[in-house]
Amino acid sequence: MPFPYERPRRLRRTPTLRRLVRETTLTVDDLVQPLFVVEGKNSRQPILSLTGQYHLSIDAAVAECLELYEIGIPAVILFGIPNSKDSHASEAWKEDGLIQRAVRAIKSAVPDLIVITDVCLCEYTDHGHCGVLKGETVDNDTTLGLLARTALSHAHSGADVVAPSDMMDGRVGAIRKALDEHFFPDTLILSYAVKYASGFYGPFREAAQSAPSFGDRRGYQMDPSNFEEALHEAALDLEEGADMIMVKPALPCLDVLHEIKRRFQRVTAAYQVSGEYAMVEAAAAAGLLDRKRVIGESLICIKRAGADFILTYWAKEAADWIKNGEFAW
């Protein structure tokens, strides 16, 4: 046999060949767009820390959702930034709260769009932590009741999926119990099962106005050094009733994402977080990289690692590129 016997380059010779043999594909169906909702009317204010993202009043969020659905994006995840906050996050579960009204308006205008709601208290507490405080520590068990109450109010407003992101022990079980007891057995739980205490969240905290007023969240979010703990957290959330699990952040945790998908074989999402987004945008603005190519590569890497869908601030833009065949793999 002439050397070399194997010639893998034959399969890479043309764009059409590469498409034919491609192992991993990215479609519009894989994308979820995060939206930040604020009070007001006809308001669409740029978020300084997240170039190209906006604080949207409810009517503006509805208009955005109509556009997203029109281009084929299947789902959005909503984050609410209320005008008033207190120590017990009472705005989080109000029947006429910001997110509750936003969910009702979006589902009325775009009933087939999947609406996911972030279930956490950090945007609603005056101290910025993800639960009720006991001294300077988050009281896990007291917080569970408020998280369940918040998730139930979202379900009652029409949310298709509730996504607890607080990292309290037992919160998935508490939410599943509340939903089932109040006749919402079909409301899905997308658990932030693996949420590391990451430096990549910086721009989000400005966008969601949720930075803690003291300390940090390392006492309840995961240590980025740990791998086996991530598997344990995912297993616990699935046992408690999570329908889907999420890994966050995405690119720094591809090893964790891959193993969780391989081991549990359950619907697994990844959140391409604000810091990942901001780094690429900053580098692209400085002319240091090909923006579209790097965005596409980052998304396909997350999909290749095992994500069934990706929460990304580029969802709308990426959907256009995918539909128009503009990603250059």
Q: Key terms for this structure?
A:
329 residues; alpha/beta; TIM Barrel; two-stranded antiparallel sheet; 11 helices
How many domains make up the 3D coordinates?
Answer: 1
How far the N terminus sits from the C terminus, by CA atoms, comes to 33 Å
CATH topology: TIM Barrel
Strand order, sheet with most strands: 1-4-5-8-9-10-11-12
Looking at the overall shape, the CATH architecture is Alpha-Beta Barrel
- Rounded mean pLDDT is 94
What this model shows, in words?
The chain is an alpha/beta fold and 329 residues long. It has a single domain (25-323), classed as TIM Barrel (Alpha-Beta Barrel), CATH 3.20.20. The chain is built from 11 helices and 12 strands. The strands form 2 sheets. The chain has an 8-stranded parallel β-barrel with strand order 1-4-5-8-9-10-11-12, surrounded by 9 helices. The radius of gyration is 20 Å and the shape is globular.
Short description:
The chain has 329 residues and is an alpha/beta fold. It has helices spanning 15-21, 58-70, 98-109, 140-157, 171-181, 202-207, 228-240, 254-264, 274-285, 291-305, 315-323, and strands spanning 31-38, 44-46, 54-56, 75-81, 114-119, 133-134, 137-138, 161-164, 188-195, 244-248, 268-272, 309-312.
